[in-house]
Amino acid sequence: MSGDNVKAPSQVFKWFEKMKENYDKNILIILQRLEKNNNQQQNRIDNTHRSHINTMRESYLSQTSLLTSQIEQQRQEISYFKQQIEQQQHTISQLNNRYDAVMIELISNKEPAAPFKDIFNDKDFIDADNSAIDSPSINNSAIKQNTVSSPVSNIYSQSKYDDLVLDNEQEAERMYLLALEMRDKNNTKNAFSNFMNAANLGHVLAMGAVGRAYFLAEGVKENHSIGLSWLINAAELALPQAIKRVEYFRINEPLLYQEALALSKEVTNEVLTASGAII
């Protein structure tokens, strides 16, 4: 009996030893499995990370390559635009030089502003003495042909009428000579005013001077129609210079001539009234 009791603990210990050994083995196996799973999981994570990193690297390289290409393209465009700007500046410089040359040429060889002014370059309407004109004012026969009879005109005797005409002629000549002096002093405004006063009194040369002034804008605003109307009236009174110019405009500028011809009738009436032909 005592022998059996001695064997029992021994067997129990062996059993516990065996259980412990099996437990340790199981633990070891479990730990190995865990380690293996951990390693596999870590490998999967590492592979995922590597793949992601490779993808990011490829994306970065692709973007870098694209940006580099864009930068290079922009550099080429900048270079192209710089060349264009340089060419434009060169062209502008050439145009400025040409413009300066043209302006210098125009200033050096300045032409009249109007196409008709070149026919007034001489001094035909400046010289007071002209042997082709018998009298500087409208002659009596011309006045009488345009006289409109009225009850008032019968009041004046022939002698008073002749005296009035003579006074007008003298006053017209005085104003005409004064206008010439003013024009010589470049006082064109006052010169034109005196030319007009003399022309209104029938001074033929003053009529020509008024027409010339309107064409050349000397003391008055340029107006070809009015200027030619005065020349037409002066031509009708046999002023050679006016005849020559009226003929020029009649042939070369028929529309202007017709317009001036209509105006000349109004001018004639004003002159006749001012000179005393119509009273």
Secondary-structure blueprint of this entry?
Elements: H1 2-108, H2 140-145, H3 158-184, H4 188-200, H5 204-216, H6 224-236, H7 240-252, H8 254-275
Helix pairs in contact: 3-4, 4-5, 5-6, 6-7, 6-8, 7-8
What key attributes describe this structure?
mainly alpha
Briefly note the structural class of the backbone.
mainly alpha
Low-confidence segments, given as residue ranges, are: 110-114, 124-156
Count of spatially separate domains: 2
Distance between the first and last residues' Cα = 189 Å
The strand count comes to 0
Work out the helix count.
8
Q: What shape does the CA trace take?
A: rod-shaped
Strand share of the residues? under 5%
Question: Would you kindly provide a written description of the structure presented here, covering whatever features stand out?
Answer:
With 279 residues, the chain is mainly alpha-helical. It has two domains: 1-110; 117-275, no CATH class. The chain is 77% helix and 0% strand. It has helices spanning 2-108, 140-145, 158-184, 188-200, 204-216, 224-236, 240-252, 254-275. α4 (188-200) packs across α5. The radius of gyration is 59 Å and the shape is rod-shaped. Residues 110-114 and 124-156 have low confidence and may be disordered.
Could you give a quick summary of the protein structure above?
The chain has 279 residues and is mainly α. It contains eight helices and no strands.
